[in-house]
Every structure is written in structure tokens, then in C-alpha cells.
């Protein structure tokens, strides 16, 4: 899960996961989602579905 930050748009957020839009087609199956511009809130997540430029992710506990 090391790499460079990619911009995305948070479309939906729940306590279990999120729906995220990104232009990055080769988004990895697991990554860290930064929920603030300063990286103060981050969640490890894994992709559970993909549809075009939108992915559904589940937060890891």
C-alpha cells in the first residue's frame, strides 16, 4: 500500500465503507483512503466492486 496519492471524489461514506470516483483505471485492490486533505484521517480499505470510474470499498478493521 505504498505509493503516490491519487485524487478522487468521495461519493458516499458509511461506517463500513465508501463509494469513490477516480480517474485512475488501475486502482489497486487494497489501498489507504485519506479522508482529509492533510492526511489526518486515513482508512485501510479493499475494493469490493468496480464499475467504470467508480469503486466500492470496504474498510478493514
UniProtKB/TrEMBL annotation:
This is PilZ domain-containing protein.
Amino acid at each position: 500500500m505504498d505509493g503516490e496519492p491519487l485524487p478522487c471524489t468521495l461519493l458516499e461514506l458509511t461506517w463500513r465503507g465508501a463509494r469513490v470516483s477516480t480517474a485512475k483505471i488501475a486502482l489497486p485492490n487494497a489501498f489507504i483512503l485519506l479522508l482529509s486533505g492533510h492526511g489526518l484521517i486515513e482508512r485501510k480499505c479493499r475494493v469490493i466492486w468496480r464499475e467504470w470510474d467508480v469503486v466500492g470499498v470496504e474498510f478493514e478493521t
